[in-house]
Every structure is written in C-alpha cells, then in structure tokens.
Amino acid sequence: MWSVEPAAPADAGEVLAVTQRAFRPYQAKYPVAPEPLQDTLERVREDIDRGRVWVARSGSRVIGAVRVRPLGDRNGAWEIYGLAVDPEFSQLDVGTSLVRAVEDRLRRQGARALHLQTGLRDAPAIEFWYRVGYRPYRLEPDPDPAGGYDRVWFSKEW
Ligand SMILES: CC(C)(COP(=O)(O)OP(=O)(O)OC[C@H]1O[C@@H](n2cnc3c(N)ncnc32)[C@H](O)[C@@H]1OP(=O)(O)O)[C@@H](O)C(=O)NCCC(=O)NCCS
C-alpha cells in the first residue's frame, strides 16, 4: 500500500528520478524532450519549498509525484504538471490518488479551477485525464511543425 503526502526537501532526488522513469517512454516520440524530461533538481527543490509537490510513498520509496503552479493569467486557476507514476506501479490508482490529493488541497485554498496540458499523441495520459473528470478545451499545435508536440489543454472547474 502507499500514502500520498506533501513532498519533503529530502524527496527532491527521488521526485526527479520517478519523473524521468515515467516520461522516458515519450522521449523517442519527439525530437525535443517533453518538459518533464528537461527538469532539474533545483527546480524540483524550489517547488517543494513552495509546497507545490506531492508524492506517493510505498515504504520509504517514492513511487509517484505531482506538481502544481499558478496559471498567471487566470484568477484562482492552477496548472497540474509533472504527474508521474513509476511504471512498476502503473494502473494501481496511484495517479488518481495523487490528483485527488492536489484537488482537495487546492480547493481548500480557494482555487476555482485546475488545468493541465498533455501531448495529443500521449494516448494513455489522455485516457487517464478523462477518467479523473477533466475535459479538453483547447488544442495548441506545436509552433515547430517538425516538433510534433501538439498539446491539448484539459480543465476541471468547481
Ligand atoms: C498517466 C499516469 C499518470 C497514470 O497513472 P496510474 O497510476 O497508472 O493511473 P491510475 O491507476 O490511477 O488510473 C488508471 C487509468 O488511467 C488510464 N491509463 C493509465 N495507463 C494507461 C495505459 N497504458 N493505456 C491506457 N490507459 C491508461 C486508464 O483510464 C486507466 O483506467 P482503467 O484501468 O479503468 O482503464 C501514468 O501512467 C504515468 O506516469 N504516465 C507517464 C507520464 C504521464 O503521461 N503523465 C501525465 C502527463 S500530463
């Protein structure tokens, strides 16, 4: 069994590692690595210090992580990003538990909507977001036609 809790500073290395394991299958699909694969330990540490990272922990091991950031242009709107579940633990509800923890916390803090972007070609992720109640509202084609990383924005409001 696992628990979901706010990340501690000592989790930064494991958060980065689980993110890289989860997103690696997407790497070969695109000429430019998706944002989570370009992440650095420093940025993960900054997010943890701001209380914007949650982890799923099984024993002492981090098996999943999720992060949030404010969407600057919209009042009360936040973006979920970097949702990552260790492939060894996929399809066990870990991702759903992480999203629910973020939703509970941000709702209590007064957030009115959650948004996220995912790759149009990242079919398992799109299935996942539908399943947890998010709906697409905007397609954002990759400005570089050779890049092929077209994004879909999803949101949930309450
Ligand atoms: C997408 C991801 C977060 C799902 O995490 P998870 O813990 O496996 O998901 P859960 O067990 O909570 O939910 C499972 C649901 O997600 C979807 N899903 C997960 N993996 C899937 C796959 N390989 N193929 C199709 N659907 C999939 C399905 O809707 C599934 O529901 P079902 O079992 O009833 O079919 C995880 O696979 C992951 O880290 N992927 C790589 C990184 C990524 O895409 N992150 C999100 C980017 S925005």
Description:
It comes from Thermaerobacter marianensis (strain ATCC 700841 / DSM 12885 / JCM 10246 / 7p75a). This protein has a single domain, classed as Aminopeptidase, CATH 3.40.630. It has four helices and seven strands; from the N terminus they run βααβββαβαββ. The longest helix is centred in the N-terminal third of the chain and has 16 residues, at 12-27. It has a seven-stranded mixed sheet with strand order 1-2-3-4-5-7-6. 31% of the residues lie in helices and 31% in strands. The mean pLDDT is 94. The chain has 158 residues and is α+β, with helices and mostly antiparallel strands. The protein binds coenzyme A. Coenzyme A (COA) is lined by residues 22-23, 83-85, 90-96, 116, 118, 122, 124-125, 127-128, 131.
